[in-house]
Amino acid sequence: MAGAFASRRLQRELPKLQATTSPGIKLVSATDLQEWLIDIQVMDSAHPLYAGQTYRLRFRFSGKYPIEAPEVMFIRATAASCWDQKPRSIPMHPHIYSNGIICLDLLDKAGWSPVQNVESVSMSLQSMLAGNYKNERPEGDEVFVRTNTQRPRDVNFEFHDDDC
Amino acid sequence: MDSEDEFMSGASSGDDFANIEDSDDDFDNEDQDLGFSQDKDIVRTSKKSYEVDFEVLGPSQIQLQQDVQIKDVADVLGQPPEAAAILLRHLRWNREKLFDRYMENQASLLDEVGLEEDASHTPSTKKIPDFECEICMSGDSDVETYALKCGHRYCVDCYTQYLASKIRDDGEAARIQCPTSGCKRIVDSKSLTFLVEDNLKSRYRELINRTYVDDMENLKWCPAPECIYAISCSVRKKDLAKIVPTVTCECKHPFCFGCAHEDHQPCPCSLIKKWIQKCEDDSETAHWISANTKECPKCQSTIEKNGGCNHMTCRKCKHEFCWMCMGLWSEHGTSWYNCNRFEEKSGNDARDAQAKSRQSLERYLHYYNRYANHDQSNRLEKDNFAKTEKKMTLLQNQSGMSWIEVQFLETAAKTLQECRQTLKWTYAFAFYLARNNDTIMFEDNQKDLELATENLSEMFEQPVEQLSAKKLDILNKNTYCSQRRVTLLSDTAELLKRGKWTFNISLD
Ligand SMILES: [Zn+2]
Ligand SMILES: [Zn+2]
Ligand SMILES: [Zn+2]
Ligand SMILES: [Zn+2]
User: What residue stretches are annotated with the UBC core domain (chain A) (predicted)?
Assistant: First the structure.
């Protein structure tokens, strides 16, 4: 349930996002002020991992957004449900678990800044993909995916390296 | 109780505070003799080898310590106290490091914490023509705005909400940064008090105090829920292989200064950590042991344990046995008694891997069984605390004794708890102990304490009608029990300090 503060802020963001000129970022749905879907693409057409692929991000906002970070993760989608008739999968990345949960300090409560917004977060994730050439999952992915029952926000990630 | 009185006398009042400026140096000196034994304080000459010096600090004393250090640093640097406070908190109260950094490059350090030259300015809000705040993405020329020295400006409402969330939800205080992503500017306490509502200011102060204690290596919070006291003790991490620093808070909660766990004398911190982990890993194997019911080894009828005493008598067949080893009770307390000792089988028996692993499981279960039993007895006896009061009232009515005269029951209940707790941890200790000449002494001490405790426990659980006649017996047993505990703890601590124990696992 988005509070008045979050609603006002999201209502300001929405038109800007709908009119965005950032390449590779597309607002898919924002039917309410609680959950938005964004499609992102890596613009490097020669990228060995992500060229030609589209990935889907799900943003969920609490009433305290943007003071509190949104919950952001990659989600799967069937081809039939997508505007380009192509399925969405979870991108292979050493900081993205196979259930879509992302380990990124800017989404963590200590690293989050209320100046960030949906578009800036999408761009950060876009460049996080663009800069990666490792075709692998985080260490302990299998166990984490099997045992994690927490919301992404409540997972206590340790940020071992700077490019996490 | 004797031991308790001594603990409390160690928790001296605020007299030492005048010396706080020298505290760093004192700690360093004490490091050399591990901060125990050689004690200048005459009152504490009777201190036992397993006891450590410590001091209990209340909220005002914690505040005072900070104020003294802030004033000291402010005087040396010629900075206002607010600035000195920010600098100290920023460098985690490390004065030496602060002076070094300050001498090295004053401007860059002040800049780093958002102080620069004129730290004495008063915060104020500002209206900016056509202002748009990046947090709420709105604004106009009428809205009040605020910025730290970094110049990142937001409307006051947004700033206040941001700070409130950091303080209330994230429990941050001393190192809250500017809302701008990547800006490391720290929100100084002046700005903070200027911006946040009154109801958050006390929480902020509390958190600032929290971080002070967290930042100081010689201070620890009492882990009892809601407790407001902290303990000051000079035992450091590197000393923990040589001493188990049990301290007792003003709230009466005894705990380990090294690891904040319950009092786990005589077992060193690193061993209890390993032991608890092992018990968790093997919890299924050992699950049946912690059950409150077992079968009588003779007639197989179900027997429930409802007190701490391990001397069981089957209601049905009157068979007397030991709850821990299920052996005949009549053999306990005689030279046949070996309930506490694990008999290693000779090498021949354990030739193949399977036999070896069976033996190592048996060995573990032997110690776990006894550990879990004392733990269980301890819990049952704690539950019985309310019953003890009832017993005391009952005894008073039946015997015509005064309230003072029935206090011996409470004393006995306390002794039982202490002894159970010690016994429990002796089994974790013994599990990791490698055999040498001193092991026998340890096991003898353990056996003596265990027998004394079981005897006291049995007397204590007698029907009230018999208690008044047994008062002297119970008092004597109680004294004997306490003495056995002191002996075990002193002997074990002495050898630990001298590095004489060998363990079958590394102590780090
Ligand atoms: Zn604002
Ligand atoms: Zn800033
Ligand atoms: Zn306490
Ligand atoms: Zn400890």
Answer: 5-164
Query: Are B181 and A106 within 8 A, CB to CB?
Result: yes
Please tell me if residue A9 touches chain B, with a CB cutoff of 8 Å: yes
Domain ranges in chain B with CATH number 1.20.120.1750: 269-497
**CATH code of domain B269-497:** 1.20.120.1750
B17 touches B61 (CB < 8 A):
yes
What is the least distance, in Å, from the CA of B196 to any CA of chain A? 15
Task: Name the 3-class secondary structure at B114.
Answer: coil
* Digit-coded pLDDT (tens) for B191-211: 888 899 888 888 888 888 788
A97 falls within a domain = yes
Q: Going along B234-309, which residue ranges are E strands?
A: 246-248, 254-256, 293-295, 302-304
> For the domain that residue A113 is a member of, what is the CATH number?
3.10.110.10
Q: What's the rounded Cα separation, in Å, for the pair B236 and B218?
A: 7
Residue the block writes with tokens 């009608």? B465
Range of the domain at A23: 2-148
Q: Indicate where chain B has its CATH 3.30.40.10 domain(s).
A: 121-196
- A105-114 mean pLDDT: 87
Q: Which residues of B are known to be catalytic? A: 309
| Distances, alpha carbon B35 to alpha carbons B42, B259, B498, in Å | 16, 17, 14
What are φ and ψ of residue B303, in 5° steps?
A: -120, 130
Q: Which residues pair with B55 in a beta bridge?
A: B232
Q: Which of B56-65, B243-252, B296-305, B489-498 has the lowest mean pLDDT?
A: B296-305
Mean pLDDT of B417-433: 94
Q: List residues, by chain if needed, whose CB lies under 5 Å from ion ligand 3.
A: B 222, 224, 227, 229, 249, 251, 253
Domain assignment present for A71: yes
B121-196 — its CATH code?
3.30.40.10
Ligand nearest to the CA of B145: 1
Q: How many domains does chain A have?
A: 1
Tell me the CB-side half-sphere exposure of residue B109, using CA atoms within 13 A.
Answer: 20
Query: What's the whole-model pTM score?
Result: 0.64
- Report the pLDDT value the prediction gives residue B6, as an integer from 0 to 100: 40
Write the CA distances from B300 to A137, B274, B370, integer angstroms: 56, 36, 21
